[in-house]
Each structure stands twice: as structure tokens, then as C-alpha cells.
Amino acid sequence: MSDVSHGSYRPEIDGLRAVAVLPVVLYHFGMPGLSGGFVGVDIFFVISGFLIGGILWAELNRTGRVRLGAFFLRRVRRLAPAYLAMAAITLACAWFILLPFDFREFGQELVAATVYLANVHYFDSAGYFDQASDQKLLLHTWSLAVEEQFYIVLPLLLIVLARWRAHLPAVLVGLGVLSLSACLWMMTVSPPAAFYLFPFRAWELLAGVCLAITGYQRGLSWQVHPALSWVGIALIAVAVFLFEAGDHFPGFYALVPVLGATLIIANGRDKNIINRALCSRPALFFGLISYSLYLWHWPIVTLLRYYQGEHDLAAWQILLMLAAAVVVSWISWRVVETPFRRGVLPGWQLVAGYVTAAMMLAGGALSFAFSEGLPGRFTPESHPYIAATRDFNQDWSRCTQPVTGVWGGIEICPIGPAGPPKVLIWGDSHARAFKEGIERAAFEANQPGLLIWRPGCPPLIGVLKDELVSSPSEEAACASSVEVVLQGLAATASIQTVLLVGRWSYYAEGTGIGADDRNRIELKPDPAGPLTVRDRQKDLFADALALTVTRLSQLAKQIFVQQQPPEIFDYTARKAAQALAYGQIDPDVLRNGLGTTTREALRVRFAGADAALARVTNVPGVRVIDLWTRMCSQTACSAIFNATPIYFDNNHVTNAGALALRDLYAPVFEGG
User: Fold this and answer.
1) CA 400, CA 409: separation in Å to the nearest integer?
2) Integer Cα distance of 671 and 301 in angstroms
3) Residues 332/84, Cβ–Cβ less than 8 Å
């Protein structure tokens, strides 16, 4: 690694790479105390911007041009061989471990990562029923994609503006400010976009670029004052040890590690204890293997976690994985990275080999999608449960989101035959889960309807919600959607029946349970509404449900409230499918153990929700749809219905489950 201004090696930057990669790795391995370890990626962005920006700027000033071919060849030598090795071996391991649906998804990840569009793929695929992040084997490649996109945009920008070279630094500073401003704005609109997409991360890379150009133009010696190094490492420490993952990042919080890395690089030549530590042998070792370590650590930990299911990793497993990641990364650096960087192959052979290998990987990955993830890799007993892991996709092509009008601002989905809607189905993600059954019932009754759903948004009047997994913009959208539903219902005379569908126990208790016990939601009275603060959330929920059905009864003739499906506490279709596919459990044990919850346990969990439902049955014109009589025995409720698994996770039914219960909706559409 070279000083971009003077051509000399700067070991402290290799040491800073260690400061970037180790928190990321330890955070991903679940090491306690490093709640903000993910900020190492932001440090990497600054380093990459500084090095690449300095190299390109020096070449532009020295020769008046940028040689794109030579630049991209250096990038291929540096990045491609180690990535291809990691991707190929991860693919081989995934063949034996990933369930078909996840294997198919992995194929899409592999294609996106290989063409350096992983960040776009993960942003595009983010959603309520999206895979958990720790099941995406190539999720970490999103940051590599951001850097590759930067490697394309920056040299092209320098070439286009080369004749105005004197003004280029100001242009780059302006673009950095614009990118940061866009990032801050996007955080209020779509935090996933601000996190994944290049335009909203470019400012972090441009911080390094502008620092490098400043050093080149002013001939900096990179020795300012020891205080810069101390402040820089302190800022990074604050981010690593005090920050937490969530929808508040990147935003303003990302300024902390970015500024910290910038200060350390700016004072990298100063003789102080921070720089001496960065130049120590351990720091240099991890700095040299940092790229390979970043590449390899994530597939190692995700594959093991995937194989183990939802069991927490033991301390010895974490330590063993850490050791394995370091060893594999050192081998990758020594055997793959170093020889290719030193030119073991001529340029044209390297590029040809890379293109060939990339096409083979992408072609193989695409074949997984067309073959449904190759389910034949696993035993027949696991196939019904494997099918349940992907039995939640529906056709939403009829949905629209009007900009204006009585339904303006929310997505509305016609169901059943065409015509003015007679029935409104309003709910949260449970309304989506039951969509296939509700729509089939609408067609069978020849009654058109309208489905409106929003994940995590209770179909309740008079309360606001604060959910752990939701951003402020999503909370605001939930609140405004309630007003739009009431407005639309009042203005649509054809709707005479309303069906409410929700995860009532979640809203009553404020937490998930079992497999999703980390979920949290708090209900608060809407200051503009009639409800008041209650000591217990279940009482506020009951007040809100009563207010909701009373208000809806004034706008429609008939109100139905669907009883929530029983929660099968520790069950998920993926967990069940994995246990069967790996031979870890007997099918009968699965059905009678993991796949069931006792009535007594459910009675305790649903006490608040059941009390609220009992209360609204006293409102004229309100009926409750009883699911439990069909889904439960006298002693227990099961995720398996007529020998078919009908739950996707521990509280959402699959399409098969929704269709099996569709006759329960006949009363909803009888006089719609």
C-alpha cells in the first residue's frame, strides 16, 4: 500500500484496516460489547476513497489523463480472485446446507454479488417476509458493490471534468455534501435505501478522496498534531462500543466513524502511541489479511448458524469459528490474493479467466432459480415443510396506490370479481397471510372486496404505535393510513361489511413470543383521539379495539373481527424443515413437540386479546370469526393441519393454511 502523495508505504493505513475489519468480524460473531462493530465498513469506505482517489488524482495531475484499462485491471487483480474463491467454496457448502428456497435466493445473491450489484439486490429484496440477514450468505458483499460502483464513477468523473481540473476539488466537495444531505433525507423516507445504495454512501468515500487531494495539492507530510490521532481513535471507539444497529444508521451517526478515520489518516505520519499501535505487527497482520478476512468470516458464521437453526452458538464455537476465519483468510491472502496482485497471470489471461469464472458462477446460480432450489437434495419427509418455507408469495398485481382521492396515499388491493367493493378487509401482515383464502372465498361468493394491509400496523383507531423494527417514517405512515381508511370507507357507499385481521396478542402484550420474542411494540393514545393512558397495554388495546368497531359500525352494516391464529411459540417452517432435512428430529416428534403449543400456555398468552374480543361481541352488528375450533384440539394447537404444515413462522399461516380455512369467510361475503 502506497502513500498517494509521496509514493512511500504507509503502514498505519494497513493498521487502520485492522481497526476496520476486527470490529466487523467480532460483531458478526456475536462478541458482546461491540454493539457498533458494523461501523468498520464506514472506516473501510474512507480508506478506499483516500487510496483510490489519491492514485487517480496523482495520475491525472502527472499525465493529464486517467488510464481506465490499467486502473480496472489493478482492481481486478486486487479484488476478483479472492472473491471468486470465496464464492465458489461457499456455493459448494451451500449445496449441502441451504434449503431449496434459500438456495434459490442464494443463487440470486451470487449473481448480484458477482456483477457487483449486491447492494441493489439487498435493497430491492428487503421486505417484511424477507430472509433474516444472518441467512444471507453473501450479504456482506453489499459494501464491496458500493466500492466497485465508486471505482467506476470516480475515474469517469475525473475524465469528464479533467479540463476543469482546477475546479475538481470543489466539485468533489460539493458532491460529498450533496450525497450526505441526500443520505440524511433518505433516512426519513427509506432507511434501507440510505444504507445500501451508492448515492447515499458516496460521501463517506468522497471524504477520503478529498483528504487525499488536499494532501497532494498542499504537499502535506501527514503530521499535524497528536490530538488528531487521539480524537480519531476516540470517535471510532465511541461508534464501535456505543452505537447500535437500527434504522437510525447511517445518517448523522455515520459521521462519527468517518470523521475518526479521516483524522487518523490525516495525522498518520505523526510519532504518537496511536500510530505506533497501528504499525505494530498484530495490527499489520490483520490489516494485510483484512480483505480476505472480510470476505470469508461472514459465510463461515452464517453457514454454521443456519445449520444449527435458531440455537445460540456456544462460546467454544465462536472461538473456533474465529480461529478458522483467521486461518482461512491468511491462506486466501497468501495463496490467492498475493500471487495475483504480483502478476502471476498476464492481464489478458486474468481478465479472461475472471470473466469465464464469473459466467460459470452466474450461470450455475441462475439454474438454481429455474429448478426451485433443487429440493431433491433432501429427504421426502422434509419436502412438505420445505414447501411451507416459501408458501407465502401472492399475486399483488391488482394493487394500486392512488396519489389523490379518498384512498390517496395508501395501497389498496381489489380481491374477488371486478366491481364496486362490497367488503373491506383491513389488517396487518396477518391480512396478507390470509389473502389467498379470503380472495378465494370472495370469488366463490361472487362478491368483490378491497384488501388493505400494512405490516406491523394495527387496524385500530385512537392509538399510535412505536415498534422496535419500524422507522419514524413508517410509524407516521401507519398513523396516516388509519385516517385514510376511515375516509375511504366513509366515501365508498358500496362497502357494507368490514373484516378486521390482526395479531391481537402482539398488540395486547407488547411483545412477540418464542421464535420472535425480540419483537417489541408499544401502543400510546393518539393525543387527538378520545382514549387515555392505561396502566396496562392490554387495557389500552381493548379500549382501542372497542372504539374501532364502534366507529366502523357507524360506517358499515356488519363488522367481523377475525380471531388471531394460535401462536405456535417455537415453530417456524424453516426450523422444522432444517431439522428434518438434516436428520436432527423424527417427524412424529416434530409434530407433537416443536409443532404444537398447549391450550393452557395459549390461554395465558391470549388472556388480554381474548378479553378484548369478548368485549366487542357486545357491540351490535359485530361478529368474531372463530379460528381455534378448527385449528386446535381440546388440549393443544398445531402448526400441522390435516397432515400439512400450515404455518410460515410462529404466527403467520401459509397460503395452504389460508386456503384450508377459507370457508370460515363465507359469512363475511354472504350479504356483502
Assistant:
1) 10
2) 55
3) no
Euclidean distance between the first and the last CA atom of the chain, given in angstroms as a whole number: 72
Given this model, what pLDDT does residue 5 score? 42
Distance CA 15, CA 125 (A): 35
Going by pLDDT thresholds of 50, 70 and 90, the confidence category of residue 312 is: low
Check: CB of residue 49 under 8 Å from CB of residue 206: yes
Beta bridge partners of 596: 638
**Closest residue by Cα to residue 268 from 314, 316, 296, 226:** 226
Rounded to whole angstroms, the Cα distance separating 69 from 75 reads: 10
31 burial (CB, 10 Å; 0-12 / 13-18 / 19+) is: middle
pLDDT of residue 311: 59
Amino acid at 646: I
Q: How many residues does the chain have?
A: 672
Helix (H), strand (E), coil (C) string for 632-655: ECCCEEECEECCEECECCCCCECH
CB 498 within 8 A of CB 423: yes
Q: Is the pTM of this model over 0.85?
A: no
Residue at 356: amino acid letter: T
Question: Going by DSSP bridges, is the β-strand pair 558-562/497-501 parallel, antiparallel, or unpaired?
Answer: parallel
What are the tens digits of pLDDT across the range 244-266? 887 788 999 999 999 999 999 99
* 128: exposed, middle or buried (Cβ count in 10 Å: 0-12, 13-18, 19+): middle
pLDDT-derived band at 588 (thresholds 50, 70, 90) equals confident
The two beta strands, 636-638 and 644-645, are unpaired
DSSP state of 344: S
What does the mean pLDDT of the chain come to? 91
In a 13 Å sphere around the CA of 317, the CA atoms on its Cβ side amount to: 14
> Which residues lie below 8 Å from residue 509, measured CB to CB, with a gap of 6+?
537, 538, 605, 608, 609
- In degrees rounded to 5, what are phi and psi of residue 653? -80, 160
C-alpha cell of 455?
Answer: 405490516
Nearest residue to 439 via CA among 413, 478, 459: 413
Mode of pairing for the β-strands spanning 449-453 and 423-427: parallel
CA distances from 437 to 309, 392, 400, 443, 659 (A): 30, 12, 21, 10, 4
Distances in Å between the alpha carbon of 7 and those of 59, 72, 609?
12, 20, 69
Q: Angle at CA 625, nearest 5°, toward 448 and 644?
A: 90
Taking a C-beta distance cutoff of 8 angstroms, is the pair 515, 572 a contact? yes
Question: What is the distance, to the nearest Å, from the Cα of residue 158 to the centroid of all Cα atoms in its chain?
Answer: 34
Residue 583 falls in which region: left (phi positive, over 0), alpha (psi -120 to 50) or beta: left
DSSP notation for 138-171: TTTHHHHHHHHHHHHHHHHHHHHTGGGGGGHHHH
Assign 561 to helix, strand or coil. Answer: strand
Q: What is the DSSP code (8-state) at residue 661?
A: T
Dist CA 475 CA 223 (whole Å): 48
Lowest mean pLDDT among 5-9, 293-297, 573-577: 5-9
Banded model confidence at residue 131, pLDDT cuts 50, 70, 90 = low
How far apart (Å, rounded) are the C-alpha atoms in residues 419 and 375? 41
- The amino acid occupying position 216 is Y
d(CA 32, CA 34): 6
Binned at pLDDT 50, 70 and 90, residue 128 comes out as: very low
- Name residues whose C-beta falls within 8 Å of residue 338's C-beta, 6 or more positions apart in sequence: none
In angstroms, what CA-CA distances link 375 with 96, 348, 370, 579, 584?
A: 11, 40, 12, 15, 18
Q: Which residues pair with 451 in a beta bridge?
A: 413, 425
Question: Any alpha helices (H) in 9-39, and if so which ranges?
Answer: 11-28
Distance CA 317, CA 30 (A): 11
- pLDDT tens digit sequence for 58-117: 999 888 888 988 999 999 998 999 999 999 999 999 999 999 988 988 999 999 999 999
